Amino acid sequence: MGRAYNTIQFHPAKCDGCNKCMEACAGSHGGKNDPVHSRIKVTRAADHQEFTTAYCHQCGEPRCAMNCPAGALVKDPDTGVVTLREERCVGCHLCTLTCPYAGITHDPTVDRVIKCDFCGGEPECVKACPRFALEIKTAANVYNVWGDLEDLFVPGLSACQGCNSELLIRHTLRRVGPNTVLATPPGCVAGAGAVGYNERTGTKIPVFHPLLTNTASMLAGIRRYYNRIGRDVTVLALAGDGGAADVGFQSLSGAAERGEQILYICIDNEGYMNTGTQRSGTTPYGAWTSTTPVGEMLRGKTRDSKPLALIMVMHNCEYVATASMAFMEDYYAKLDKAIKACKKGMAFIQVFSPCPTGWRHPTGKVIEVSRKAVETNMLPLWEYEREEGRIRFTRSVANPQPVEVYLKLLGKFRHLNKEQIEYIQRKTEERIELLGRWAPAGGTGEKK
Amino acid sequence: MSAIKYLIVGSSHAGLSAMEAIRTKDSDGSIVLLTQEEHLPYSPTILPYVVSGDVDAARVTLVDEAALNACNVRLRKGAKVVEVSPASRTVTLQSGEELGYERLLLAAGAEPTLPHIPGLRETPHYVLRTLDDAIRLHGAARESESAVLVGAGLIGMHLAEGLRRVGLRVSLVEALPHVLPAYFDSEAAGLIQDVFRQNNVNVFTGSPIAGVSASKGCCIVSLASGTELSGEMLVVCAGVKSRTQFLAHSGVEVDEGVVVTDTMRTSIERIWAAGDVSQAKSFFDGRKRVHATLPSAVEQGRLAGMDMAQDETLSPYPGGIAMNTYRCFGRRSFCVGLTDDSQVAQDTEVDRVFLPASEQYQKLVYRGDRLVGASCINSPMDPGVMVQIIRRGIDLGAMRKQLSSSPLETGRSLMAGIWG
């Protein structure tokens, strides 16, 4: 497979123009902190609130390199960095004319063009920014490290257009790998054909269809059997929220308490979607479902959702986490931990899974919905490791956007009135505060 | 012998750019690059630096054998194409060899023109277009004390500076009223002329040449004004013309260059053209012209390659815009779009800042609220950002004044908000 590369992202709302990034960049390229030598430029136009940055985007089709008459600019295939070979540069400045991003500029004090070299992979500007306005995005690692793994589900699964769960299960099983037995209880995953159709399995590994009530107990038995005969086989559940939080909770709870060595992924689409969008224990307050309709008497679900992942923390599981497909590197990091943890006891991950069909949103918006849920704190990203004994936010919950930013994306919340939205905002903040009590001191997750 | 899937005539910017675009889409189709020279691919833009000695002639290669092999491209040197036969889909080399093609790209570039000046053809003179020209000139410069240069376009100006810096007495002659007539207006050009004069280059503008002759190893250049100039070297850099002679019997439509569509197709199917050899749509008025600049060659080559490889992400050519950077004696300048006197029409407005004391010149040309030209000397702004503002036809509205007063910050703010 090809390569993907890490990149720098700038958050203008966080920048206050302190110029520490420029000083750090200049200082690490020749010793003097004068911003004139900086490869990243921060400026602000008159009458503008926000600062702007200009720095090299390390383009995939770098116009500077394509237009250089001296062959002085070359994209390094290993690092992705468009490298300036100064010994070849004749100073014609055609690069500055053909770069649309002011990523290569003229330093008048040395009369040479300068550009970002990514500091060998750990950019100094990112380290220097005290307000986290510069961030290094490492999503490329997912592609580079896991990109060659085999997708162990078959093609032709009949999930709805835009289904988040299909994305989720394919990534999960690639990573968990072929030495696995998979349980797919009744629900969308089985309904889409994962468990099989036309007398063949929907996977390239052993898969079976437990009852909605007993996924965890069946997996417990299978794992115990393999242990007895001396084989380390991962047992994996891809279960909906109905099976995990409601009718299957009894067996899940028991298995967790007994420390059964299971990797249990709860695909939380906040309802019994496969059977026609009925409400479940994880359906949020105010949501329309076919059993919590909107009309004269009722305006969607009247009860708050059950905080399932938090309940699993109370079972002394080895590992518990929440995840969202809009934060793929975060999910892969959590899967790594869960895979190790399930050798010792239960590893449980609740993955947020928007359902365009049941939640009534455009099919192409699944990732945006997954992102906004996190950014509004309606889905805080955290993990719990039994050894640590604490909850740790894996993404900062400071400065969230108002819940309305998320709610307005979904048809299932279209009917909400002002009081309901205020209620949701308040409850969201309360949940964060509750989670925070288990987190280390000062642990709202604001991290470098 | 089976036909070559992609046959490219010419191995400079247009050809190389096309080659990369083809390989992005088609990793297996055979590509053969033809060059009439005996050198690995290089850029004509580097040649003045070879003449001045700033760059070693051995280090001008843009892509070497290893890189060509790595992308499975075959380069044939000394392979001059003398005939193109669309009926049989073959090209004929000077050696007589015939090569069959499935798709053909004409990226043959342009060659120097000799103005019709009495005595010029008979008088020993140099031109600068190929690496061999540059090596010759470099050698001659080391043996000479003086030079007369005909034409103050980019090549002439670069050469004048280069020769001056290695110690020659240099006279530069331009028939039109000022230097760099295709790029700068008289005011900006005047600033540059002053810099040259400060550096002891004798610049004669508005000076057509009446005749040229040779005498005792020197050239004598007689200006129409009566002045006589002499020099041990005579260099002609009076413009280039698309290399289209080899297409005379091919049926391909040729005007000043090979006429092409918005996807670089010529009038004959399966034949494309790009770069200095082609005549393509202009951005501002839609008329087809030869856009003989490096950035145009790169862009056109890329589009031709994409169309040849049937890359469905291709967007048609938005049209050529004149643009270039120019540095001389430590100063820096660039221009893009409608900037020179002849181009600035009645429906444009100009915001101009000229500070001769600090050698700063900044001209922004607007049509309504849209930027259509920028021309700057020693002025702090990002050339590439200005190009984008023009290309995207951004309606600046109230930002127009700001752009003129602080083009660097305003340009970057626009970039961040729109395409960054």
Brief descriptors of the model:
heterodimer; A: 448 residues; alpha/beta; Alpha-Beta Plaits; Rossmann fold; 2 domains; eight-stranded mixed β-sheet; two-stranded antiparallel sheet; 16 helices; 16 strands; 15% strand; globular; B: 420 residues; FAD/NAD(P)-binding domain; Enolase-like, domain 1; 3 domains; seven-stranded mixed β-sheet; 10 helices; 24 strands; 25% helix
What is the secondary structure topology, with strand pairs?
The complex is a heterodimer of chains A (448) and B (420).
Chain A: E1 7-10, H1 20-27, E2 41-43, E3 52-54, H2 63-67, E4 73-75, E5 82-84, H3 94-98, E6 104-107, E7 112-115, H4 124-128, E8 134-137, H5 139-146, H6 164-176, E9 180-183, H7 188-191, E10 207-208, H8 215-228, E11 234-240, H9 241-246, H10 249-257, E12 263-268, H11 308-313, E13 319-324, H12 328-341, E14 347-352, H13 356-359, H14 366-375, E15 382-385, E16 390-393, H15 404-407, H16 418-436
Parallel strand pairs in A: 9-10, 9-11, 11-12, 12-14, 13-14
Antiparallel strand pairs in A: 1-8, 2-3, 4-5, 6-7, 13-15, 15-16
Helix pairs in contact in A: 8-10
Chain B: E1 4-9, H1 13-25, E2 31-34, H2 47-51, H3 65-70, E3 73-76, E4 81-85, E5 90-93, E6 98-106, E7 110-112, H4 131-143, E8 146-150, H5 154-165, E9 169-173, H6 186-198, E10 201-204, E11 209-215, E12 218-223, E13 228-231, E14 233-236, E15 240-242, E16 258-259, E17 271-273, E18 278-281, E19 288-289, H7 294-308, E20 323-328, E21 331-337, E22 349-355, E23 360-367, E24 370-377, H8 383-391, H9 399-405, H10 407-418
Parallel strand pairs in B: 1-2, 1-6, 2-3, 6-17, 8-9, 8-14, 9-10, 16-18
Antiparallel strand pairs in B: 4-5, 5-6, 7-15, 11-12, 12-13, 18-19, 20-21, 21-24, 22-23, 23-24
**Which percent band covers the strand fraction of chain B?**
25-35%
Give the CATH class of the largest domain in chain A: Alpha Beta
Query: What percentage of residues of chain A falls in helices of 4 or more residues?
Result: 25-40%
Strands side by side in the biggest sheet of chain A: 10-9-11-12-14-13-15-16
Count of DSSP helices of chain B?
A: 10
Name the structural class of chain A.
Answer: alpha/beta
Unreliable runs of chain A: none
CATH classification class of the largest domain in chain B:
Alpha Beta
Give the distance, in angstroms, between the N- and C-terminal Cα atoms of chain B. 49 Å
| CATH-level-2 architecture of the largest domain in chain B | 3-Layer(bba) Sandwich
Total strand segments of chain B: 24
Q: Biggest sheet of chain B, open or closed, and with what strands and sense?
A: 7 strands, mixed
Number of domains of chain A: 2
